[in-house]
Specification:
The protein is an all-beta fold. It is built from one helix and 20 strands.
């Protein structure tokens, strides 16, 4: 089964990530966390309690790649998106077997989405609005302590993506996906020494069937199902002065199964990309933190390849 060029472009357009995800998509994979989490990811900065986080993202790309990594045949391939997500986290002070239960709720939104395919946006047309709500019960383990402070901290979360966002099967690009997803992860931080850390977040993504599939798949298509995927965020940083940390951050995505249309596998459409870039974190206090991360993508397959800028503010309610 072959898809038109416009449909393939739409499937490429899962351009965001989230702790959390924020951009619009109409394709194989829903919006997932690509680069939204970075430094000191394995533990909350101020222990139990309520946390509010606001993310702002700007994503721009001037190329969309096919399955071989070549630029697709369109006169233009310009994408500019400004989006964000609002997050509320609660970690309980109660402890069971060394771990604190908690809950994570995230509301993504797309404020603006500008595209230009050089053909009046016949292939690339975008809409704005709220994305799919993410809900994640988690368990946060107490840090393993050493003589000079923490040495290791980690967390497991069962993240569920509910299809609550704006979705229209007649639109090429939507803030919502139109289907349920489960995206559990393991996040951890290792302290090499009191000033230097390495963090990671490892995800496995599973997607349910969409019974209102994109109409561009063709007549007679009654269902679609996005493939499964692995994705990860990795970061390392060093405290160069009190309150200021700088370092490197990156992300990686690999779709590991084909999408299905009417229950049949569609080959040659698996997504992949990786990115790396600089980052910085400034802590005003133990309860307020500002992070900036930049990512430059490479080796994209069946999706855009561009630049992502993420600004994040974290506040612990005392």
């Amino acid at each position: 089964m072959k898809r038109s060029a416009s449909r393939m472009l739409c499937l490429c357009f899962a351009v965001c990530g989230l702790m959390d995800t924020t951009s619009a998509t109409a394709g194989d994979l829903p919006n997932i966390n690509l680069g939204f989490t970075s430094f000191l990811d394995g533990a909350p900065p101020a222990g139990p309690g309520w946390y509010g986080t606001q993310y702002l993202e700007y994503y721009t790309a001037d190329r969309i790649n096919d399955n071989a990594g070549n630029k697709v045949a369109l006169p233009k391939q310009n994408i500019d998106i400004f989006a964000g997500l609002t997050q509320l986290v609660y970690q309980s002070p109660f402890k069971i077997a060394g771990a604190h239960p908690g809950i994570d709720v995230i509301l993504p939104w797309v404020a603006s989405a500008h595209t230009d395919d050089g053909m009046g946006n016949v292939a690339l047309n975008a809409r704005t609005g709220f994305g799919d709500v993410l809900i994640g019960p988690f368990i946060q383990f107490d840090p393993v302590m050493g003589p000079d402070g923490p040495r290791f901290a980690h967390r497991f979360e069962l993240q569920i993506i509910a299809p609550t966002g704006a979705y229209d099967p007649g639109k090429a690009i939507n803030p919502g996906s139109g289907f349920w997803s489960i995206d559990p992860y393991w996040a951890a931080t290792v302290w090499i020494n009191p000033k230097w850390t390495v963090s990671w977040r490892l995800h496995y993504l599973w997607n349910a069937r969409n019974n209102r599939p994109y109409q561009g798949l063709g007549d007679g298509v009654t269902s679609s199902q996005a493939g499964q995927a692995l994705h990860a965020n990795i970061a390392t940083e060093y405290e160069v002065m009190p309150g200021l940390r700088i370092g490197l951050n990156g992300y990686w995505l690999r779709q590991i199964t084909d999408m299905k249309v009417n229950g049949q596998n569609v080959s040659g459409q698996r997504e992949a990309v990786w990115a790396i870039g600089p980052g910085a974190m400034y802590s005003f206090s133990q309860h307020d933190h500002l992070l900036f991360n930049a990512y430059f993508e490479a080796d994209a397959r069946n999706r855009p390849e561009g630049t992502r800028l993420v600004l994040r503010y974290v506040h612990h309610f005392q």
